[in-house]
## 1
Amino acid sequence: MEIDYIALFVTNVERSLIFYRDVLGFRFDKPAKPDSAEGYSGKLKIGLYDRAWLPKLFGDRGEQKISGNPFLLSMSVENLDQVYQELSDRQSLYPVNMIAPPRVMPWGQRILFLSDPDDNLLEIVQSSTASTDN
């Protein structure tokens, strides 16, 4: 078994589409709808859905309160410093909430923590094949 699809329930699909497509570089081949957009991060399919979908999908359970940071979405890159610089350079066009700059964690991984427009927690991890000297 493997994960092949992630659905994010967001407060503003257009804003989230801009973030995931234009800031993080995910691929969205089909035109977005007002209440949804589907795209890819590598081979993993990702869906952005307006939170109004929750009651449609889950009935009464869709009325449960949703808070930020219920999960962590992790991405890996070859050059974390380059990605950090690119995100920093885009701040005037696409503000990104960077929680912490790239740092080496106690277990040895270099990670950049940030959040999406709905305050979902994201991490960008330096792939293990790249240098971890910093």
## 2
Amino acid sequence: MTLEEARLKGRKLLSDMLAGFDPHAEKRYEKVASITLLELLEEYLAVRTLKDSTVEVYRRVIKKSLKEWLNKPITEITKRHGAGSP
């Protein structure tokens, strides 16, 4: 990248930020938007203090009931999907 290209890129970013664009918020959203239901389940189970038997029940029920959604990003799961329709 040349010095002039860097300046143009910097000006564009500064202009976007002055217009309300937050580049950090965009990166956070992209990270959250890519989390799957299965990853969210495992994160939830990792931060909770639950009995091992409870953890196994949660995993079994979610994996059986929502198996079509497990690898789907959570931001793509909406009310219109309804139970049993991925």
